[in-house]
Amino acid sequence: MKVSKEKIRCPICEGTVLNHQKPLKYENTDIREMINLKVSEVLAIVGDLPVLVKLKSIVGGEMILTKDISLQPREVQVALKMFELEQASFTGYEIVLQNALPFWDNIKGNIESISRNNQVTICDFPNVNETREIIIDKYFTNGKYKKLTYVYEAFGYKKLVTHINKIRKAHPCPFCKGKKVISEENLHDGVFKLTIPCVSCHATGINEEGLKELVEGIDVLTWLTGKVRDVVDESSKAVSDIPIFDRIRELNKRDMMAVYESLEQNN
Question: How far apart are CA 235 and CA 256, in angstroms?
Fold first, then answer.
């Protein structure tokens, strides 16, 4: 992208910048004043420019042009980003979009336009049409199971983390001292601290003897590093590969929905 860029002198400010004292007039209004106006007010000055008309359809006429986009609803942010990509007039690029399905109805027109001259790749889970935030708010906020719930709790096991923490305290890994990671400080100039998972204990913080101890009839190593299928005999294919000791908030959208649907079926 950098190689294909071509720089030209700005025809409006002739190479200067907005914070200088030279007047930058569009008809009778200075541009520096214009960018602090509402969209509808700018349209009244410059007329119905297609770009501004489209912008108004996304953010409304009352939005000030210098308003921080990050403060807007997620749907507006996504629509503005797609509008920006469309206006950039890319040609011959591969554009990869993630988390597009939840907003598909609003952005499919932009995607069709962009894909005329570019390859657009959508990276998302099929049949999951909600964002992570909505999934957590909708399914894991007010019910019995929350976003901080461990996956094993969804399959009927309780207080495993309490038992395993006691085992970690009684049988700490001799290398990481139960911390799960090994840290070294000031190894190199400019590298103040280097932290890596402890390979000796599989980043569990527990020595070999402790990892062999049984909790609910299953060894600790399996609890900490295993999948649902390693613990639940008749687990469905949708949940079988989910780490059993992860919290729900650590899962991707597909796995969150699989856990929720499993809970619904079992209840």
Answer: 15
The SS3 of residue 181 is: strand
| Contacts of 262 by beta carbon, 8 Å cutoff, 6+ apart | 154, 155, 235, 236, 238, 239
Containing 97, the helix (H) or strand (E) segment is: strand 94-98
- pLDDT score, position 191: 66
Q: Return left, alpha or beta for 72; rule: phi > 0 is left, psi -120 to 50 is alpha, else beta.
A: beta
Q: Which helix (H) or strand (E) holds 79?
A: helix 74-87
AA letter at 114:
I
**Which residues, given as ranges, of the chain have pLDDT below 70?**
1-2, 9, 12-21, 187-191, 267
Q: What is the pTM of this model?
A: 0.70
Task: Give the position of tokens 């976003």.
Answer: 147
Residue 211's closest CA among 201, 203, 199?
A: 201
In the numeric block, the tokens 């909790």 are attached to: 215
**Domain ranges across the chain:** 12-67, 132-171+206-266
Contact indicator for 58, 83 with CB cutoff of 8 Å: yes
Rounded to whole angstroms, how far apart are CA atoms 69 and 76? 8
